[in-house]
């Protein structure tokens, strides 16, 4: 086994153990997708989950990417790739299955789009949306060989064009967008980080159940803000309300008005 293959095997094993991953297809996807194919050429600026500053890898050997590290996409904006263990955990919690239709809001450079592509298989579909035009173009290039993935430039808050079994939001918002809820198929699942202006908050899983929805907090998160996320104290209070309400017990509701759930 080569050094790179061994590093990738350890990477998958560590994520599986740390997050207690139940999905065999997810672990197979993590083992199959080369992370280096979804980044600019190294050396790379990386940092650990708890790290406050980047360090430069000593060279461009992809072995450095097979650790639970963030990789800078744009260090000036503090825009990084997703932490592998965190998003593997979220994908596992969402119970993404073979044949599912998945919408990603904020696909970045497409690494997790490729992971999801492997999970859903040829009968499934990944609709990957990215608001940054340059990132969307790069993701489309990197994902060119993935026939069940379509990359779209947009903010994900207007006509995403199709119903989904799973919607994953890779950026922070103050509340779930009504469009995402409307786009869920019966028993569909939405994962959305609800954060304040300091980028801190909680990721919520929302499931469509009958004529309504059920929300539960999954875990605390710090994440880059989504385009269109409000920047006022009121938006922060809305995000805080969702976090507190869903942390106490599953929150049941029928719709959303002015950012808050309704029974109507």
Structural description of this entry:
With 264 residues, the protein is α/β, with parallel strands linked by helices. It has seven helices and 14 strands. The protein has helices at 3-19, 24-32, 84-93, 111-120, 133-142, 178-182, 233-248, and strands at 45-48, 55-56, 69-74, 79-80, 101-105, 125-130, 149-153, 164-169, 184-195, 200-209, 212-222, 251-253, 255-257, 260-262. An eight-stranded mixed β-sheet has the order 7-6-5-8-9-10-11-12, with helices on both faces. It has a four-stranded antiparallel β-sheet with strand order 2-1-3-4, with no helix packed on it. A hairpin with a 2-residue loop joins strand 10 (200-209) and strand 11 (212-222). Helix 1 (3-19) crosses helix 3 (84-93). The longest helix is centred in the first third of the chain and has 17 residues, at 3-19.
- Beta strands, count: 14
Number of helical segments? 7
Overall average residue pLDDT: 92
Widest β-sheet, arrangement of strands = 7-6-5-8-9-10-11-12
Proportion of residues in extended strands: 25-35%
Helix and strand pattern: HHEEEEHEHEHEEHEEEHEEE
For the biggest sheet, the summary is: 8 strands, mixed
Supply Rg.
18 Å
| Backbone structural class | alpha/beta
Q: Which consecutive residue ranges, at least 5 long each, have pLDDT under 50?
A: none
Task: Identify the overall geometry.
Answer: globular
- Termini separation (Å)? 59 Å
- Percent helix, as a range, is 25-40%
């Amino acid at each position: 086994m080569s050094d790179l293959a061994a590093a990738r095997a350890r990477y998958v094993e560590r994520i599986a153990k740390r997050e207690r991953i139940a999905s065999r297809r997810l672990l197979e996807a993590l083992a199959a997708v080369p992370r280096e194919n979804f980044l600019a050429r190294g050396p790379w600026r990386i940092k650990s989950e708890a790290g406050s500053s980047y360090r430069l890898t000593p060279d461009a050997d992809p072995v450095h990417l097979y650790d639970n590290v963030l990789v800078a996409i744009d260090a000036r904006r503090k825009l990084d790739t997703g932490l592998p263990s965190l998003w593997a955990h979220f994908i596992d919690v969402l119970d993404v299955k073979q044949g599912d239709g998945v919408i990603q809001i904020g696909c970045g450079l497409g690494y997790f789009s490729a992971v999801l592509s492997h999970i859903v298989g040829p009968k499934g579909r990944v609709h990957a949306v990215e608001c940054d035009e340059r990132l969307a173009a790069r993701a489309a290039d990197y994902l060119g060989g993935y026939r069940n993935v379509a990359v779209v430039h947009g903010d994900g808050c207007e006509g995403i064009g199709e119903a989904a079994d799973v919607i994953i939001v890779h950026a922070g918002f103050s509340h779930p967008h009504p469009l995402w809820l409307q786009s869920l198929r019966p028993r569909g699942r939405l994962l959305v980080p609800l954060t304040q202006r300091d980028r801190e908050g909680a990721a919520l899983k929302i499931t469509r159940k009958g004529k309504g929805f059920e929300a539960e907090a999954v875990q605390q998160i710090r994440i880059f803000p989504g385009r269109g996320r409000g920047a006022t104290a009121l938006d922060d209070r809305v995000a805080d309300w969702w976090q507190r309400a869903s942390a106490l017990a599953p929150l049941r509701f029928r719709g959303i008005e002015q950012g808050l759930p309704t029974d109507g």
